[in-house]
Amino acid sequence: MINFRIISKILGSLLFIEAFFMACCLAMAFSFHEDDELAFMASTILTFGGAFIFLFFGHEAENALSRRDAYVVVTLTWVVFSFFGMFPFLIHGSMSSITDAYFETMSGFTTTGATVIDDVESLPHGLLFWRSLMQWIGGLGIVFFTIALLPQLVGGSVKVFAAEATGPMRSKMHPRLSTTAKWIWSIYVLLTILCALSFWLAGMDWFDATNYSMSTTATGGFSTHNGTIFLASPLIEYLAILFQFLAGINFTLLYMGLIKWKMGSLFRNSEFKMYIITILIATALIMYLLLTRLDYDFEEAFRSALFQVVSFITTTGLSNTDAGAWPHLTWIILMVLMFMGACSGSTTGGFKSIRVLMLLKVLRNEFRHILHPNAVLPVKLSGQSIPQNRLTTLLAFFTLYILALLLVATIMIVSGIDITNSFTIALSLISNVGAGLDTNMGPQMSWADLSDGIKWLCSFLMLVGRLEIVAVLVLFTRAFWKEN
Question: So where does K(+) get bound (predicted)?
């Protein structure tokens, strides 16, 4: 059966971490002397109180998790973090609706970047910093952060890692998972600092540079300005492209390539090559369309195309132009990138490049089997054969992904949303992109016009997409709750 005491103990411990980050935002609010000081003071106290309550109910728990406990912990962590994370918005009064506040918070922690706030620039600096910080915490995973910081709090951390990590393959740098988590988070922190310094040196003020660095490396997309078009110079845009691209690489691979200086390991990796080739082809196609149909000059066409391609494939959702005004053929390309996503083991969402590559190789082998029925044709990635059980899991995940898209899009169509927006919203949320493509719901859109019921559905879809469907949906199966 589910051990609710250990789950309560872990949730309480994690809430202390969330309260600490709220206290950081309180310090930011005090430094700017704005009207969000009381909101963060009250939210920090409430979150600390919630942590003590959870710890009280779990104080006699043994520090050991079953696989079932791990899936419950991971899902509840994201739900509970979003619940407490919405308090600053509600107490400050910038949002009066629990639905909107929860949507915004879930969007932040899942790094989706969809916002219901029409006038972001009216928010005080503390709340803007909290929005960016939520994305940064959620970038590599809330529980994974805890494994790196305080591994003793998460008993059975390997099971938790399996429940929260993205992608079909689990790679480790070190036999101890906590050591691997520390290295990955060190790279994440280093990327964020380098990104912030680059933006600042390129002309951003320190506050925007800090916020956009967190939003960029977490591939989240929240902005401190209205809309997501924020980049004031080509240099800043190219820097944003670079750091979005780096955040889309598997962090274990990034460690081997950039920290260990084994660059050959990057280009021997099948998924990384797929990632690079997809970006190059998509950029070339969109660039051609911009040059021939919209009369862009060469450099602007290249920069705009590359920015949108990298932003969509890494599921960041930032923009340097309004892609909703581009030819419809570019929408199809961007939708494919939105679905595909970047590399597994990165901060990005989407289906993941490695899964697309595996599917293509399975299809290739099926065609070969037609000609050679008795041939043994293994699926290989980076020179290693993929076990059959992984391929079965892949096909099950693909089926669930498509069914979830169709089901949610159908519900939205029934609720009165047009077909184009229904499918782009569903794809955007399950891929954690946060940007639509229609001119009414393009990259600069606000999601405030959606009904409350649809917003709750969207919040659930963001969670399902971030935890890659199975980790959440398994909780709704009858077998999961059976004693044996």
Answer: 111-112, 220, 315-316, 432-433
